[in-house]
Specification:
Number of strands: 25
Shape: globular
Radius of gyration: 22 Å
Number of helices: 10
Distance between the termini: 31 Å
Length: 482
């Protein structure tokens, strides 16, 4: 399933790494965060290489809704309460500056990526008090926000918080224009890191500094990031023959929709759930909503995305851990990767080149670890539940009882496995144990994938790893019924 961005932008293929490479900084990950960080470091005079496991923009950057905004849902009132006004202001300032710096680069360098300056809206069906509270918090932190009782949306809502001067764009067109200036090795997964040495299947990279910008850090210790956040999936469709009033829209309620336009299409998204806990039907719900909101519209694309959700409401950006001072990390963007990617690039560049940044404290992974131990324990408990379900209990159907196009735990050749029935005769079977830490995988009927409910690793029906932190494929087999 390709997103509207992947359908409309193809970057050039870049060769993998063979042999040895050296650099001042090695960046792991060729998405928005990795490319922006590498470019800013290079512009400061450092030699930088990027190692990308697949292709530039082939991860979550190509599956975003690409809203470039400092309005990240109803976040600011909560940040003031949890972290205090000073740190909440750091977060607002960093993301407001990220929007402006990104737009300035696009305009100054004349990057053709369909940039459009527009307002961002946070709406609600009936929680006006929450909107008023959020609008007050955004204004108090220096954002140009206001509560509006009427919105342009074709929905019955009680109002919205309007943040002026934000933007939307084509993320892959922007990314590919920047990537052309960098040394990037594609199809070069980093298998492990020792100090400043990155080990890949065909070679090594020696670097003085290492930046983990691979969506989810695959190193378990130190850092313990697997115990400090979880992953969520969400779903999107692009609609032709649909018209949306100017602006980007995000609903406060869990069942509300996210909307934006792109060159005559409307992108409608929603259906968020913890990875590995999916009952299905999310695309069907989007299609039903599309016909109610935009009668006569036609589906041009549908896709899903995955986001790292931290225990604290802000990303982890800074030093990876006290034990490895030459390592840096940016993860946990909580669905707002476009502005946070630019904020991360600025912050990490300042830490590497200057040793400090005025807004670093709110994102500091080490500092955040000390602040909310209860949420850390909650994430650990969720993972422990998954680890406790390593094996199947009770009867499962025979593989030939599955319908064509259906997957799930089933018995094949006398063994309980995860089975997908591709045709009447063809079955794909995988072991149901995630190679990351051993959690039992769950079937995702919307994306036809095997998902880990503990830490969010995902695998296709043939066992190929789709999403980290797992780094290896599943033991798998394919069988034709005789």
């Amino acid at each position: 399933m390709e997103s509207i961005w992947e359908k409309t932008c193809r970057g050039p293929a870049r060769p993998p790494l063979y042999g040895k490479a050296q650099a001042d900084v090695a960046v792991i990950g060729g998405g928005m965060t990795g490319i922006l960080t590498a470019l800013e470091l290079q512009e400061r005079g450092l030699q930088v290489v990027v190692a990308e496991a697949g292709h530039v923009g082939g991860g979550q950057t190509g599956r975003t809704t690409a809203k470039l905004t400092a309005q990240h849902g109803a976040i600011y009132a909560g940040l003031i309460e949890r972290l205090g006004r000073e740190k909440a202001a750091m977060y607002a300032r960093a993301n407001r500056r990220a929007v402006e710096r990104c737009c300035a680069r696009i305009e100054l360098e004349q990057i053709d990526c369909d940039l459009e300056r527009t307002d961002s809206w946070l709406y609600s069906y009936d929680r006006e008090d929450s909107l008023l509270r959020e609008a007050e918090a955004e204004r108090a932190l220096g954002l140009d926000a206001s509560f509006e009782p009427d919105t342009p949306l074709p929905l019955r809502v009680c109002g919205g918080v309007r943040l002026r001067g934000q933007a939307q764009f084509h993320p892959l067109k922007f990314l590919q224009a920047l990537a052309d200036r960098l040394t990037i090795y594609e199809r070069t997964p980093v298998e492990h890191v020792e100090g400043g040495t990155l080990f890949t299947p065909r070679g090594t990279i020696e670097a003085g500094r290492v930046v983990f910008a691979s969506h989810y850090p695959f190193v378990n210790v130190p850092g313990l990031y697997f115990a400090r956040m979880h992953q969520e999936r969400s779903y999107a469709i692009a609609l032709e023959n649909a018209v949306l009033p100017a602006g980007m829209y995000y609903g406060l309620e869990p069942n509300a929709w996210s909307l934006r336009s792109y060159r005559g299409t409307v992108i409608l998204s929603g259906g968020a759930h913890r990875t590995g806990r999916n009952g299905g039907g999310h695309y069907a719900a989007l299609r039903e909503a599309a016909q109610a909101l935009f009668p006569g519209s036609r589906e041009a694309a549908h896709w899903s995305a995955q986001d790292c959700m931290t225990a604290f409401g802000v990303p982890y950006i800074g030093r990876f851990s006290a034990r490895d001072p030459q390592w840096y990390v940016a993860t946990g963007f909580r669905k707002w990767g476009m502005s946070n990617a630019m904020a991360a690039a600025e912050l990490l560049t300042a830490l590497i080149c200057d040793g400090s940044h005025p807004d670093a404290a709110v994102f500091d992974p080490g500092d955040l670890l000390q602040q909310r131990p209860g949420r850390i324990a909650e994430e650990g408990l969720q993972a422990a539940r998954g680890l406790g379900r390593r094996v199947l209990h009770g009867p499962v159907p025979q593989a030939d009882e599955l319908a064509v196009g259906e997957g799930g735990p089933a018995e094949l050749d006398g063994k309980q496995m995860g089975v997908y029935r591709a045709t009447e005769e063809l079955y794909y079977a995988v072991e149901l144990r995630c190679p990351h830490l051993g959690c039992r995988l769950e079937w995702n009927p919307d994306d036809k994938s095997w998902d880990c409910p503990c830490h969010g690793s995902r695998f296709d029906v043939q066992g190929r790893c789709l999403t980290e932190p797992a780094q290896t494929d599943l033991p798998a087999c394919c069988r034709r019924r005789s």
